Amino acid sequence: MKTNTMKLISLVAGSIILLSSCTKKFEEFNTNPYGATNEQLAGDYALVPAQLQEAQKTIYAFSPAWVTQLQQNLLGDVYSGYMMPPTPFRGNSNNMTYDLVDGWNGWAFFPAYSSGFGSVMSPITNVEATTKTTAPEVYAMAKIVKVEAMHRVSDIFGPIMYSKYKDQSADGAYDYDSQQDAYNNFFADLKTAIDILTPIRSNASTQLFQKSDLIYAGSYAKWLKLANTLRLRLALRIVKADPAKAKSEGEAALANVGGLLSTNADDCFVNIGSTEHPLNVMNNAWADIRMGAPMESIMGGYSDPRLSKYFVPATDPAVAGQYKGIRNGINIDAKSRYQGYSALITFPSKIQLMTAAEAWFLKAEAAIRGLAGAGTAQTNYESGISVSFSQYGLAGAAAYSNNAVSIPAQYLDPKAVTAGQNNVITGSPYLSTVTIKWNDADAFERKLERIITQKWIAMYPDGQEAWSEFRRTGYPKLFPVIVNNSGGKISTTIFIRRVNLPPSEYSTNPLGAQRAAATLGGSDNGGTRLWWDKP
Predict the structure, then answer these.
(1) Residues 50, 336: Cα–Cα separation, whole Å
(2) I need a labelling partner for 533 at 20 to 30 A (CA). Which of 115, 136, 157, 322 fits?
(3) pLDDT per position in the chain (535 positions), as tens?
(4) Phi, psi of 411 (to 5 degrees)
């Protein structure tokens, strides 16, 4: 982290004190640079764009970089298998070894509400109240941004404050939606946005809409595609928990005349201007993140040309010139041991939230599940690969898709501290044998693994979404931790399933937090599955 672990921990600790009563002081705390009252937002809407831009920028809170590191990097980016720090934070007892650090993980929660660095729910609620009847197209954008942001928070914690945000109950508590209720509200909000944008999708957008948009330069048609694709993403997310709802929402997304994201021109990136991408800061300035071992195994085994677009060869003499990843949750004695493994490439100043490649893989899964309007699984699957290759300016997608031989490679770590953590042998339940080429005769699970494995490759570097899909499907096959410091709360073989609610919620909003935890169906810890996360 910035210069050393203790400096960051001190900074976070101070921030936690500042934020300890954030859910009890919604009105007073909304004092960030974009802050505005409903009255200020009304009239000429001068502050509406600032509020919407704030929310878009906070979905993946990119500045300062240490907030991103705690909001996403030391959670989803690692748990997805994409990345792993070479740094033994807190004496190597940390999130990576399942000793969940509350002082870190609260930062996956705070930005959604009021962090001091921007927020989502406060500005979005202001915009919704101001534009519902007078600027419905902006109201629709606000709904889409809110769902895109808050489903990520729910997919980390489970219950969230969403439909009841700012509503104080009779006993003084601020209550949460259960995750099931939150998802139902996500779908309702997306439908509202889709119904508004569908009839105007070909129209020239208003100046207010254009000023508010950091993603699509004011295109109604592209925001509609994003909403439809997000609806399909969330429909498949709940396919085991509520199959009927998943089917109806998924088919509605597929049937909408506006369509899904389909080309790289539709990709959803938030423009962050001159700000350095936070992964560049973590990777280059701090040397706090490196390639994950599953990326080496899967992409290396497939001879995937995207590997050189994601990472750079290792510099450590033991593995110099190789694409070498660090296995998650291992014994690390010093940063110098793994710092020379493969670093990340340098990212441009834009934050990836959803791509057309993901949309094609969503359609491929929808097809094997028999959803109406999904088309042909093989066509969708191969289109996903092709569009992903195109995103990185690569040729050869057809030859890659036709590879029926290559499988993920055995992983070896020549610098392992502890005997037994250095390899994953062929035949291990954690090493896949799935090939690339589509085979319509394969069983359902084999097809699903093939789709999700390629989607996982294509969604990089969005580790939060990749971690959610791993928990939902079990794919791609990842390597379990070697060091498990959870004290039995999290299973090594079942992997981490979620993150516990911040302790500050139990101290400042105890009744609300207790009622939220009661919806989990298990203890409020990292081993309890989310509502949609069924075995």
Answers:
(1) 43
(2) 115
(3) 544 433 343 334 334 433 333 434 333 333 333 344 444 444 457 799 999 999 999 999 999 999 999 999 999 999 999 999 999 999 999 999 999 999 999 999 999 998 889 999 999 999 999 999 999 999 999 999 999 999 999 999 999 999 999 999 999 999 999 999 999 999 999 999 999 999 999 999 999 999 999 999 999 999 999 999 999 999 999 999 999 999 999 999 999 999 999 999 999 999 999 999 999 999 999 999 999 999 999 999 999 999 999 999 999 999 999 999 999 999 999 999 999 999 999 999 999 999 999 999 999 999 999 999 999 999 999 999 999 999 999 999 999 999 999 999 999 999 999 888 888 888 889 999 999 999 999 999 999 999 999 999 999 999 999 999 999 999 999 999 999 999 999 999 999 999 999 999 999 999 999 999 999 999 999 999 999 999 9
(4) -105, 130
Question: Amino acid identity of 86?
Answer: P
**DSSP secondary structure letters along 44-88:** T-TTHHHHHHHHHHHTTT-SSHHHHIIIIIIIIIHHTTSEE-SS-
CA 359 to chain centre: 15
Assess contact for 213 and 141: CB atoms under 8 A: yes
Burial per residue of 20-30, b for 16 or more beta-carbon CB atoms within 10 angstroms, e otherwise? bebbbebeebb
Name the strand (E) or helix (H) holding 353.
Answer: strand 350-354
**Cα separations (Å) of 349 from 118, 186, 273, 277?**
18, 29, 6, 5
Residue type, 143: K
Altogether, the residues listed in the chain come to a count of 535
The pair of three-digit structure tokens given for residue 228, joined into one six-digit string: 């439809």
Protein fold of 5-17+34-518 = 1.25.40
Q: Supply φ then ψ for residue 177, to 5 degrees.
A: -85, 140
What are the tokens at 130? 């101001």
Rounded CA separation 410/300 (Å): 10
Residue 357 CA from chain centroid, whole number: 15
User: pTM of this prediction?
Assistant: 0.93
Dihedral pair phi/psi, residue 65, rounded to 5°: -65, -30
- End-to-end, the C-alpha distance of the chain in Å comes to 36
Name the helix (H) or strand (E) containing 512.
helix 510-518
Position 331, amino acid: N
Taking the alpha carbons of 510, 513, 519, 520 in that order, is the dihedral positive or negative?
negative
C-alpha 111/C-alpha 307 separation (Å) is: 32
Query: Is the separation of the CB atoms in 287 and 86 below 8 Å?
Result: yes
Does residue 396 contact residue 389 with C-beta atoms inside 8 Å? yes
